[in-house]
Prior knowledge:
alpha+beta, 2 domains, three-stranded antiparallel sheet, 9 strands, 29% helix
Amino acid sequence: MTVFVVAVLAVLAAGAAVYVAFLALRTVRSAAAAAGELLAAYRLAEARADAERVCAWAVSERETFEKIITRGVVGAAVRNAGQTPVYDLEIVFRDPPAAWTAIRRVRIVPPAEQPEVYAGFDEERTEGPVERDRINDDGTIRLAPSADMHVELRFTDSRGRRWQRGDTGVLTQVGEGVARAPAPVEQP
């Protein structure tokens, strides 16, 4: 009977050892998953670091009249406070009551202490219904002052990630491994 008791105790000890090993393995896997999540969060934060430092806001013609009157009517101040340039910037201006959208494209925005004012646009369109109070007597559409425009940014960082900052300031990554567009050919 002692052999039997010893055998049962050996089986119980082996079972307990297997159970402890299983718990240890599960703990290690959980720790590895947590470490993986921390690494992913760190990489995302690192990826966002410079993109977080790029912003824009609509400017008032009165505030920057001399600067933008020679370049256009609609304008935005853009600041890249990061450490690397951003590329293929698109400043999207929207005036929802006028159903109007315009885009200004800037090839490169280097890091700078002060914002740069960009005015005018490369493309514009009016789509959808226009609010009645925005239609002039001659049928043209009256736009809001530049400072009242909604401004959205899209740009590519130095690592090829494409970002969008909506008119509420929220930054979203919208692409990765984005090839930079070739420089436009200027017409004489």
